[in-house]
Amino acid sequence: MFHRKKLNNKKVYFWLYTQIKTYKLDVLKLLSLNVIISFSTVSIAIVTKQIIDNALNKKTTAAIQFAILFGIIEVIHVIASYLYPIIRTKFRENLTNRLQQNFMLQFYHLDWLSSSKHHTGEYHTFLSNDIPRVVNGIVDIVTTIFAFTFQLILAFITLFYFDPLLAIFAFLIGPASVIFSKLWRQKLKQIQHAIQNTESKYLSLINETLENSIIIKAFRLEGSNHRSISQLQVNRFNLQLSHTKTTALGSIALNLGYRGSFFIAFIWGAYRIVKGLTSYGTFAAFLQLIGNIQDPIEILSQTLPKIINTLTSAERLISYEALPKEIPYLASTNHLQSPIGIRIKALHFKYMEELNIFNDASLYIKPGIMMGIIGASGQGKTTLIYILLGLLTPGLGQVELFDSDNKLSIFPGTRSYFSYVPQGNTLFSGSIYDNLCITNPHATNEEIQHVLKITCALDFIQQLEHGIETILGERGTGLSIGQAQRLCIARALLSNAPLLLLDEATSSLDQATENAVLKNIKEYLVNKTCVAITHRDSVLSLCEQVVELKGCQFHEVIF
Known about the structure:
Rossmann fold; single chain; 63% helix; 559 residues; four-stranded antiparallel sheet; six-stranded mixed sheet; 2 domains
């Protein structure tokens, strides 16, 4: 669960500003249209007064002139109102895309150990809830508040011209209502954080349920899983209801100011008509101008919760951006050439406060050989691969790659020297071709066919109706586990990296297929180095060197 730090509002506002400064032109267009819309709205009140008064005084020509002006203003208002949502949508979508792209760029470079502590459902919440809330909030803050502030000032000046006392009263009662609303704003913010956290838990559980449907069916967990989902829904329902009640209570203060001002303006205008102190046209203008002053107050009662939601989501996104990052991909002056070896000296590593995984462990892997690594579960075999890939940073010790002339310490940038076949099925949805070429977009048909032959995958692909263009479902749905595993191996080989990491890469293959694939891989590994984690003798028999991970150390095994 992401725990937000208490942030200074200025820092949050500055972060919001940095998100929109690229779109200053779009913001300027929206503000200009808001000025036109607000100006035309207030102008209608003045023109209406003139039409009514001139009509009552039988000044036909003047009434017609103002009626024509009324029509022109309405046309301008309609055109501006037509353009406004178009530009607003363009601004909103561009900003959404930019925030989502920035989110993913941040995600790619997160420290793997830190990011893996958070459930994927939490990341889904950032993308599907927090970013849309921030975008909608920014659009509302930039456009709505500016528009109604301008309209408020313009209407106040106009009303002050007709009746200073009424204008001052209408202007003061609105801010008083807003100040009162601050009493409930902090509580609303706390509730919104709780809602977002509950939504993260809910999405996490749904995601796990969808991914592990076979386990749920096999162990008859439908009932308990459904109860867990229902409980989270109840929690979310209660929080949403509390949010709505708190919002409604806060809105009462704002709406009372709006309704009260309109009522007083109506009574005051009627009184002045009775006393002969004002005209019917001025009375009509009163009512419209009061609306132009109080409408922003009513809109504010609807916008304030959005602003609070925006600030809440912005704080969450700022906390996300503060997660530890990997070491930047710095260009190295040393470029290694195949074959490449691996040297590990006095390696120390443990996960947080857990027991040591490696304790003063050393290992030398000669360039161009195939090394097998064995060991009981939990001894650190997969952890070793993560260290080699730069996903984990050793506490102490040295891990480096070397060739005949140069050496290079392991860091995220050295991943380009590796290809990797993890445990299980790691295919993406899409065509078989797309899955293969993800590691080498410029691979030729001959290269693709070559790696498919090596992995004994060409025959079953040719038997598919659409061949290599066959579309796979999520996690390679449509293929057997063994077929998917062979494609994962082919994908790694197609990258043509000088170092190959295999983590139980043939565990789902039958004996005959495994022997054929391993023999082909061995022939393929000319001037390449391979590290194979396995428990199978068929793999170890092909290795020039075998080590066992035991007691936080590497122990050479004669095989």
